[in-house]
């Protein structure tokens, strides 16, 4: 799985084709969408029209909350594959645990079957807590390959990251730039960016890479799309990492999985 991918949350279907084309030209090979984003068709058109061979692409999509349940999940995967115009997915995720429904375990069983049947190469989850992950691990045959969670310097998720490490689960950061709001204006990040002659966004993304996270930054602006994958040729020092490590404020930009869908 490439450590840097391209996210398309809130990109309308007719724009998705253009921005994914720009991203592929900039060198991204991993694309993160979801049935809930309503843009799988646009993403699929860009993938099909590009010269990049299918085996070099890494395509992730997610099953939405109303698609949970064993049979629903099997159908949802086929619907996503058909909208994307693909015959397999590289990674298929349960978007939210939605604990009040209590269907995520049977949904997981369906994902295990999709993996056995070759419709998806890897299966994982998103927005799972230690508690919901523990239940999946205890009761399922396959350990989730990935947990995609909100993670950025203002929400560093040390507890979940340690749990992932102990169980061989890859940590994938959504909103890796904190959705741009406030985080990228942080004076400490600005100072580190000036030291390295880079932008605050590149400093944040480089921090993710150095602590082992997979990132899927989103932008619809070609210069930023290129900037967000131009992360080699510099390295954050132990002091830089320590400074960024101290920025954690427990601030979320999205819903809290412990309460969203829990009642
Ligand atoms: P992000 O942290 O990637 O921030 C994107 C925003 O940051 C952009 O809209 C833009 O305003 C700003 N930005 C981007 N590049 C910049 C740059 N170089 N300089 C300055 N500003 C810049 O937030 P996101 O889109 O919420 O998250 C990334 C991806 O994660 C999504 O597109 C989606 O694929 C995924 N995601 C998943 C979930 C989930 O529940 N699993 C939830 C949200 C997002």
From TrEMBL:
Keywords: NADP, Oxidoreductase. The keyword NADP applies. PROSITE patterns: ALDOKETO_REDUCTASE_1, ALDOKETO_REDUCTASE_2, ALDOKETO_REDUCTASE_3. The record marks 62 as: Lowers pKa of active site Tyr. It holds the Pfam family Aldo_ket_red. GO terms for molecular function: oxidoreductase activity, acting on the CH-OH group of donors, NAD or NADP as acceptor. Signal peptide: none annotated. InterPro entries: AKR (IPR020471), Aldo/ket_reductase_CS (IPR018170), NAD(P)_OxRdtase_dom_sf (IPR036812), NADP_OxRdtase_dom (IPR023210). Substrate binds at residue 95. Residues 10-248 form the NADP-dependent oxidoreductase domain. Belongs to the aldo/keto reductase family. This is Aldo/keto reductase.
């Amino acid at each position: 799985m490439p450590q840097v991918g391209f996210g398309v949350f809130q990109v309308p279907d007719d724009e998705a084709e253009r921005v994914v084309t720009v991203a592929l030209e900039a060198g991204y090979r991993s694309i993160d969408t979801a049935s809930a984003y309503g843009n799988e068709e646009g993403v699929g058109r860009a993938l099909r029209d590009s010269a990049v061979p299918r085996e070099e692409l890494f395509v992730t999509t997610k099953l939405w909350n109303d698609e949970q349940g064993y049979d629903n999940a099997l159908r949802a995967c086929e619907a996503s594959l058909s909208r994307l115009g693909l015959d397999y997915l590289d990674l298929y995720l349960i978007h939210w645990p939605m604990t009040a429904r209590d269907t995520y375990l049977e949904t997981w069983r369906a994902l295990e079957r999709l993996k056995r049947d070759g419709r998806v190469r890897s299966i994982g989850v998103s927005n799972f807590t230690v508690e919901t992950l523990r239940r999946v691990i205890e009761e399922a045959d396959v350990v989730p390959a990935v947990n995609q969670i909100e993670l950025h310097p203002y929400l560093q998720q040390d507890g979940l990251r340690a749990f992932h490490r102990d169980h061989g689960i890859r940590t994938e950061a959504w909103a890796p730039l904190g959705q741009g709001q406030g985080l990228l204006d942080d004076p400490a990040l600005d100072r580190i960016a000036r030291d390295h002659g880079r932008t605050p966004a590149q400093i944040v993304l480089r921090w993710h890479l150095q602590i082992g996270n997979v990132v899927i930054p989103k932008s619809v602006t070609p210069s930023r799309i290129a900037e967000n994958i131009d992360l080699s040729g510099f390295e954050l020092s132990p002091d830089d990492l320590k400074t960024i490590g101290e920025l954690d404020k427990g601030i979320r930009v999205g819903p809290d999985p412990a309460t969203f869908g829990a009642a």
